[in-house]
Design brief:
Number of helices: 12
Strand content: 5-15%
Distance between the termini: 12 Å
Bound molecules: 3-hydroxy-3-methylglutaryl-coenzyme A, magnesium ion
Largest sheet: 8 strands, parallel
Low-confidence stretches: none
CATH topology: TIM Barrel
Shape: globular
Mean pLDDT: 94
Order of helices and strands: EHHEHEHEHHEEEHEHEHEHHH
CATH class: Alpha Beta
């Protein structure tokens, strides 16, 4: 049940997109960071409940090296067991050709490669230099597109990096352009450690010249994810990454905490009168259910308000 205090919807504003595509990353970005490995059955139910709640893009898992991210070592089993629904996309993360082989074998139709805007994180997350990560991705994108797959590019550490500090926008734009030029249809700008503020978001999006191929991916470490999202929407971005219940983090960036919670995003979009297709009650039920499986409360303020 939605609690009292639900804000009145306002007519959608001319400076905002009328529809927002929510790119749900809970099963991947959320569960990759859990201390323990979540049971396959729980993952399968999680993905199915997210689809039932109306999410139409659900990033399901990663075909990375299982030693690097043991939490998602069951990627093939997950895809084999998933009851997929028409109209729902289930992208997966793929770092290299070995990962692509595994993803193709599992029958995926949408992949995401993930690059770093900084040298240090490229080494820590991918065991590559900034330049050599692109050499790793190039054949992945080429082969994936030849197979008819959609390819998204992620770019991490777009605002700050725990080892290198503030990351200049020009450096991020240069790295992001390489992913787009390689053939990624969308570029998701990641604030991996959640340090950005809205003015920086506006400046970075402006640096790309057009918001058309951009998505945003905010972690909420400093409580700025929702403010940053609104700034991105005002710049014309209409795809926003978030994770149910605010699960998330990155195992190779210790200061990264949870993603923007999908419920918090939905609450704001509802208030602004922007369509998104998600049933907030079903989603909050799902996150409350997941919180009991994980043994701790959801960090999402909206889940706490509705189900706390
Ligand atoms: P590496 O050790 O350099 O790998 O790792 P390699 O290429 O040297 O290969 C070594 C061995 O691993 C070989 O086996 C390969 O076959 C095998 P051997 O010949 O020795 O028997 N191998 C694989 N096996 C299974 N699946 C694979 C695979 N690749 C190689 N895909 C690698 C390089 C990229 C694989 C490694 O660094 C890796 O897996 N990194 C993934 C880290 C990760 O998943 N991080 C979290 C996701 S990113 C994120 O969360 C940020 C994001 O949310 C946005 C944001 O918030 O900013 C997206
Ligand atoms: Mg992330």
């Amino acid at each position: 049940m939605v609690a009292a205090g639900l804000p009145d919807r306002v007519a959608s504003r001319a400076d905002l997109p009328s529809h927002v595509t929510i790119w749900e990353v809970g099963p991947r970005d959320g569960l990759q960071n859990e201390k323990s490995v979540v049971d396959l059955d729980v993952k399968l139910e999680f993905v199915d409940r997210l689809a039932d709640a109306g999410l139409r893009t659900i990033e399901a898992t990663s075909f990375v090296h299982p030693k690097w991210v043991p939490q998602l070592a069951d990627a093939a089993e997950l895809l084999a067991g998933m009851s997929t629904r028409d109209g729902v996309r289930y992208p997966v993360l793929v770092p290299n050709e070995r990962g692509l082989d595994r993803a193709l074998e599992a029958g995926v139709s949408h992949i995401a490669i993930f690059a770093s805007a900084t040298e240090t994180f490229a080494r820590k997350n991918l065991n590559r230099t900034l330049d050599s990560q692109f050499e790793m991705f190039d054949p992945v994108v080429g082969r994936a597109r030849a197979e008819g797959l959609e390819v998204r590019g992620y770019l991490s550490m777009c605002f700050g990096d725990p080892w290198e500090g503030r990351v200049p926008a020009a450096q991020v734009v240069a790295a992001g352009r390489r992913l787009l030029d390689m053939g990624c249809s969308q570029l998701s700008l990641g604030d991996t450690i959640g340090v950005a503020t809205p003015g920086q978001v506006e400046a970075l999006i402006a640096g790309f010249g057009s918001p058309d191929q951009l998505a945003v991916h905010f972690h909420d470490t400093y409580g700025q994810a929702l403010a940053n999202t609104l700034a991105a929407l005002q710049c014309g971005v209409s795809t926003v990454d978030s994770s149910a219940g605010g699960l998330g983090g990155c195992p190779y960036a210790e200061s990264a905490t949870g993603n923007l919670a999908t419920e918090d995003l939905v609450w704001m979009l509802d208030g602004l009168g922007l369509s998104h297709g998600v049933d907030l009650n079903k989603l909050a039920d799902t996150s409350a259910w997941m919180a009991t499986r994980l043994g701790r409360p959801s960090p999402s303020r909206v889940v706490q308000a509705l189900r706390g």
